[in-house]
Amino acid sequence: MDLGLTGKRALVTGGSRGIGLAVGRALAAEGAQVALLARDGDAVRSAAAALQDETGSRVIGVVADTGDDAAVRAAVAEVTEAFGGIDIAVNAAARPASSGPSMSAIETTDDRVREELEVKLLGYLRVARAVAPQMVDRGWGRIINVSGLNARRSGSVAGSVRNVAVAALTKNLADELGPLGVNVTVVHPGLTRTERTPGMVAARAEADGTSETEAETALSADVSIGRLVDAAEVADVVAFLASPRSVAINGDAVAAGGGQLGPIFY
User: Fold this and answer.
1) How far apart (Å, rounded) are the C-alpha atoms in residues 201 and 11?
2) How far apart are CA 142 and CA 45, in angstroms?
3) Which of 22, 51, 249, 250 could bond 235 through an S-S bridge, CB–CB 3.0 to 4.6 Å?
4) Do 242 and 90 contact (CB within 8 A), yes or no?
5) Average pLDDT over residues 228-247
6) What is each CA distance from 95 to 10, 66, 82, 168, in whole angstroms?
7) What is the pTM (predicted TM-score) of this model?
8) Residue 45: pLDDT band by 50, 70, 90 thresholds?
9) For residue 149, how many C-alpha atoms fall within 13 Å in the half-sphere facing its CB?
10) Which residues contact 148 (CB under 8 A, 6 or more apart)?
11) What is the distance between the alpha carbons of residues 3 and 214, in angstroms, rounded to a whole number?
12) pLDDT (tens digit, 9 = 90+) per residue, 147-194?
């Protein structure tokens, strides 16, 4: 299937590593021009240069912190000038779900929840506010928010709240922008294989006194395909949602965690 992404112009936040980098790679491989955005200038410029060499598409690195509205607007202006516009925005700049100390519900502090909402919910909103006007002016655009399956399970108040909030943000944006040609969707990955995974597996194995193979099996115990999904496989889902082919999907959450054993979602 031709996704129709050749010549499209994409901005991917959190683009120097993990799912964001994998999304940038998938879009560039489909012929899109891609701007990777991240706080670490050296990392994002290095990632952009590597992707450009790998895919042959134009890829640039942009430095900005999505926690700063002025920085987001400046970055969007920079990408718009470089590419002549932005057709696709993918929000993937967020702290990993496993970062920070583990807290029970009654131990969760106000600051922990504020931090998660500032980085993920408000960061995503800032990007959407900055890119939506030009998409509306052209009558076409895609905004994809990378959230997470913690929206569907308990175990972390901050993790659940931030991901549910992103889904709510997505639906509100979708209903407002959909009639104007801009589709907005949210993707819920589960625990996903990235460059951080080997260290996580090693730590789990040491804590449990097991082998790394056993530790990884334990981490994927509730995944119905029987293994962790790779970041590139999540990126394939995002690439479809970023394409003109995805027009039938708007405002909805798309799970991309390999399937969760047990619960039925409908």
Assistant:
1) 31
2) 24
3) 22
4) yes
5) 98
6) 22, 12, 28, 19
7) 0.95
8) very high
9) 17
10) 97, 159, 163, 188, 189, 190
11) 38
12) 999 999 888 898 899 999 999 999 999 999 999 999 999 999 999 999
Retrieve residue 183's tokens: 């589709």
Query: How would you list the strands of the sheet with 141-146, edge to edge?
Result: 59-63, 33-38, 9-13, 88-91, 141-146, 182-189, 253-256
Which token pair is 37? 């955005």
Angstrom distances, CA of residue 39 to CA of 64, 116, 210: 5, 17, 36
Which tokens sit at 60? 């640039």
Query: What's the one-letter identity of residue 260?
Result: Q
Which two tokens mark 223? 């995944």
In the chain, the amino acid numbered 179 is P
